[in-house]
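Per-residue structure
===
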Amino acid sequence: MGTQLGLRTNWKQFSLLVFINALVGGMIGLERSILPSLASESFGMESHAVMFSFIVVFGITKSIANYYAGHFANQIGRKNLLILGWFIAIPIPFILMWAPTWNWIVAANILLGINQGLAWSSTVTMKIDLVGDRNRGLAMGINEFAGYLSVGLVAFLTAWIAQHYGIRPYPFYLGIAFVSLGMLLSVFFVHDTRGHVSAAAVQSTVPRLTSVFWDTTWRHPNLGAVTQAGLINNLNDGMIWGLFPILLLAKGFALAEIGILVALYPMVWGLAQLGTGKLSDLICQKDLLILGMLFQGIALFGLIVAQKFWHFASLSVLLGLGTAMVYPTFMASVAQNTHPEDRAESLGVFRLWRDLGYAIGAFMTGILMAYFPVWVSIASIGTLTIISAGVIKIRMRC
């Protein structure tokens, strides 16, 4: 029997890749809630721009790794890229535990960006390869659910550990477990999916792209609309990643409360994607993307006036819902508009621009915070998020 496509047919490999992606997400969660406190307490870092440097470095390296993971996926193989991603992650938890200077933390985030670009991209591509045309949105919803729920859970857990046992080294022991298990499963149990690509190529009626890079970046109306929205989405996430713990510290919240609030956004983001991913298979993806970007923009403007715990909790939920609407839909849209043999590279180009948003958002926020009140940074990025929804409205077609 030849290679078969479909979620039900390939559920064992699909489920394994979902679990591995949860481990990949956990590596980001290690830092999500406690690194600003680590910067201040362990290294005496007072400059917001310097503290944002770790996000800038992470975003740039992850975006470049995304591109090359897509570019070489067909030649090197998805599984080999996944294993390489875990190999590069091996030093990360040890550096975070014992780094003597802030530059070592920045170096760890270079490795983390490469790990995320190779490992997350590989699992995304393999899951799309396995499911075929019918359930791309559902597949991406499950994938992102696992990854970002893990980000949220680990962000909460590391904050709790830091509150009770200290910022270093105990929270980062989790990273050793994630890397060990991820490498073991990837080497011995994951199967490459290039055979599924060949099977899908025979069935596809989507034309090949003239230039995968430029068509995905802007020239193709649907792909270009999705790519700019992906960049803006991660631009505001880069701001939230760096600014939110700082904002909450300034409001007088305890580290445990900050851990809950910081974790709530990616947890809602993760959980809601189980529904929004499937929804993107059933309704016009354009409508879901517009609504999601608008939700994010409204939530960001709400942060300007929020004061109480429940204010920030409600806005975290709204921001998480908005992000959940767009995140699986982005990649399902890219897959829908590309030929199977172009798909991995197109996803790599999309993820290149999307994750550059982390760096741009963190850099913008750091610079703006150096010269203006905090609300200026939030309002600027909230405005860009709403403008992005308008670009989707104009360019994209169902």
